[in-house]
Amino acid sequence: MTDNGRNPYTLGCFGAPGSYSDAAMRRHFNDVGRVMYYDHFEDLVRAVASGERTYGVLPVENSSTGGIAEVYDLVWRYECRLVGEEYIRVQHQLLGLKEAALSDIEEVYSHPQGFAQCYDFLRKHPEWRLHTYFSTAQSAGEVAAKRSKTAAAIAGEQAAELYGLKILVPDIAANKTNYTRFIIISAADCAAVRKDKLTVVVITEHVPGALYHVLGHFFHRHMNMTHLESRPIPGRPFEYSFHIDVTGSLDEVGTAEAVEELKRHCKYLKILGNYPSAKGGMVT
């Protein structure tokens, strides 16, 4: 973990310099002077919840592989607040040493998401040994440190530039329009003027049609649901909580009414944040 200091707030970022999380952080914040990088989601979320870091940046959803369940669970468990988001286009490359050729490769390092998103490419090389690593950028750093022509990493172009690697095979992800959504978390609510996205956690009654009626409150108030993730409730077999992202501001009458209806009809409701949606959406 590294920490550099200039600005009045502190940032926590999953991964390492040159990672997609790092790119999301730099897009969101004008000044990223005081940054600490974390290898594990829980360490980052705990640091934000305790006030050690003012804001944290971590991935929560990918357009190819879906939601990252651990992140949803941690943000809820540590009662962090969502205060922003960013979408970053993910373009995975196979990276190796400057002197390496594709025929030299025997082992590949990457984050599990990197492997999952490049499954079709990796199927063509069943002889390679795959090593899961903390993040895609750190995988590139590991290959650079090993100084072995037989080692490669799946990571982004920015990681290649940072660690002095070359691109052996470009754009190897199966989905060529592959995006990851990153959330910005804090221990306090968002103070932004423009709040047009709402994230809630609900637990419904365990009866037929319960979730249907919950979603109906959003439909009748013209609130667009952008994501729905179900998570098992610890200690309660086959019962689930639902993490829901919808458009809307609690400053608007319709959104506030929908939340009040949910409070009356759900066993549990927690607002994780009302915050500005990503500026420009899914830009490259």
Automatic annotation (TrEMBL):
List the Pfam families hit by this protein, alphabetically: PDT (PF00800)
Tell me if Cell division is a UniProt keyword of this record.
Answer: no
List its EC numbers: 4.2.1.51
- Ranges for domain Prephenate dehydratase: 10-187
**Its Gene Ontology biological processes?**
L-phenylalanine biosynthetic process
For this UniProt record, the keywords arranged alphabetically read as follows: Amino-acid biosynthesis, Aromatic amino acid biosynthesis, Lyase, Phenylalanine biosynthesis
MF terms in GO: prephenate dehydratase activity
Q: In its keyword annotation, does this UniProt entry include Nucleotide-binding?
A: no
Q: Which reaction does it catalyse?
A: prephenate + H(+) = 3-phenylpyruvate + CO2 + H2O
| Alphabetized InterPro entries for the sequence | ACT-like_dom_sf (IPR045865), ACT_dom (IPR002912), Chor_mutase/pphenate_deHydtase (IPR008242), Preph_deHydtase (IPR001086)
Ranges where the ACT domain occurs: 199-276
A Gene Ontology CC term for this entry? cytoplasm
Q: What NCBIfam families does the record point to?
A: PRK11898.1
Name used for this protein in its record? Prephenate dehydratase
User: Which organism does this record belong to?
Assistant: Anaeroglobus geminatus F0357
